[in-house]
Specification:
mainly alpha
Length: 126
């Protein structure tokens, strides 16, 4: 039963963290509507990206706690093994996210949206 609960947590926590979150509104439209200049917009999307990253870190911590609190007998391996897999997955996800956002930011071709494209992407993918 605990194995099933842990598996569900692994799948559902990221969805729960973003539940009720409209990515377009959170990462783009709110900033576009509430700012009047490119520097203000860039600062706004950077704050949105920071908040999204904080939510991602909170979800990661919950998954770590779930792995530690899971009964090792039910998991048939030590929580350290699960934590290692989780850490590897998180590192790979962050590497993918950062690479994808670097690519998206490069699509500005040196224009004024450089930097804000990166932050908006981080917000959307975190």
């Amino acid at each position: 039963m605990r194995v099933l609960a842990f598996a569900l947590l692994t799948v559902l926590l990221p969805a729960a963290a973003s539940a009720g979150t409209d990515i377009a509104a959170t990462c783009y439209q709110t900033c576009a509507d509430s700012t009047h200049s490119t520097p203000e917009y860039k600062a706004c999307v950077a704050r949105a990206a920071d908040k999204a990253d904080q939510l991602l870190n909170e979800s990661y911590k919950k998954l770590q706690d779930a792995a530690v609190s899971a009964d090792a007998k039910d998991m048939r391996q030590s929580p350290g093994v699960q934590l290692g897999y989780l850490k590897d997955a998180q590192k790979q996800w962050i590497a993918y996210r950062d690479s994808a956002c670097t690519f998206e930011d490069s699509l500005a071709f040196g224009g004024t949206s450089i930097g804000s494209n990166y932050s908006s992407c981080l917000c959307a993918l975190s």
